[in-house]
Amino acid sequence: MRVLARLAVAIGVLLALAAYLMPVTAQAQATLPQWYELRTQRFAILYADGDLAQAEEYATFVDEVYDEITSIFSHPAPTPVTLRLYPNRRAYDAANPLAAPVQGIIAHADFRRNEVVVILDQTTNQSLEEIKNNVRHELTHIVLADLSSNRLNVGFHEGIAQYVERPSPDLERKAAALRQALERDALLPWSALDDRDQIYGSPQIGYPQTLSIVAFLVERFSFVKLREFITVSARSSGYRSALERTYGVPSTDLERMWREWLPSYLDGGFRHNALIEYDLTPIETLVADGRYADAKRELELAIPWLRNTQQNDVLARAQDLLARSETGLYAEDLARQARAALEANDYPAAANLARRALDAYVALDNQSRVETLTVYAAIADRGLRATALLERATVLAGDWRTFADARVVADQAASEFLSLGNQENAARALTLRAEIDRVQNLAGIVLLTIGLGGIAIGFTRRLVVREAEVW
Q1: For the domain that residue 75 is a member of, what is the CATH number?
Q2: Is the predicted pLDDT of residue 17 greater than 50, yes or no?
Q3: Residue 380: Cβ within 10 Å count
Q4: Contacts of residue 388, Cβ cutoff 8 Å, sequence gap at least 6
Q5: Are 86 and 120 in contact (CB under 8 A)?
Q6: Are residues 94 and 31 in contact, defined by beta-carbon separation less than 8 angstroms?
Q7: pTM score, two decimals?
């Protein structure tokens, strides 16, 4: 069956890699082709005698495929990538003798050599899109190996490499095979994702199942999270640890959630691919929830892909969301600075920063943050008023005739600063009030002394006058 041939594409990977390390017999050497090279911007295409026309056809699209795949993962593969075009299966088997017993091999990838291999006579009945998919699939293996330090397991390797392919008749056949496996209760446990023999030994189940697992993770958690899982795999003890570190959920729970989700996938969900019909709804939700950094990360991955796939309407929406995310990050930075200024009792700076952040959040229609920044602005305004009261009390205290007013204003300033938690400025206001009280008390004593002195002088004068009168 053609489906089995297509599903068996990657069986040759392990066998071919082993064969590269083995000495080639003299008989095999005699059947190996003479290689010629055709260069593109990203690829060195190696072809045999008589295959120049096919090499030139590959040269028309391989750079575009490279840009697609590397933009999806935001990770460029080293260039030039070697694309080796074997003319037929006989020449391929001569170079890879361990692969000879395996039927249906069309292509494989060798990340150690940074090489993609295609067997031309195996692609005769494929459409142009399916031929491009061969390159997409195998180039993805090279990128995944590099991103994960070659620690991503076989199940996720194959699932992700299939996910980046464009739709073809194989997709419907894979869904039908997976539906039959579900009905027969023949699905592989997720523990099989580590097992090459199970994935490649039962490709009619292993391939569609691994594709569905990747589709589930992308639909439920986003492609950005999937890419994070790939990179986390580079520093994890295994895929279960990497899954839990990335998604915050044990792999057993994810497997249960996938099984619950699978019927919707088989009912038609398999036709939807976030990389081909990019759904911005999750990102719009992130922006609406104020998760601007998360939205920006996902958009920075999505926008190059949207450009390369010419999804112009979606691209325009994505660029608008990116601008909103950047505005949100700017507003968050202003809000952090406003809070820090309030904590430092720098009310002029806090007022300015809070109003700028408030304007940004109003533009974003982020009501919860608008409410928070409204509070910040109100606190800053109260601080400014309290500062103005303290300054006025200080001026009034400079004139003994306005001591009473100065004391009242200083009390008001102290009360406002205390309510703001500004102990330092409250102490300044209370110190000013105490100084006013001290001066007033001192003035009272002086006036009392002067008054008593006046009384004493007057009394003395009366005595003197009386004594004079007696005489």
Answers
A1: 3.30.2010.30
A2: no
A3: 24
A4: none
A5: yes
A6: yes
A7: 0.67
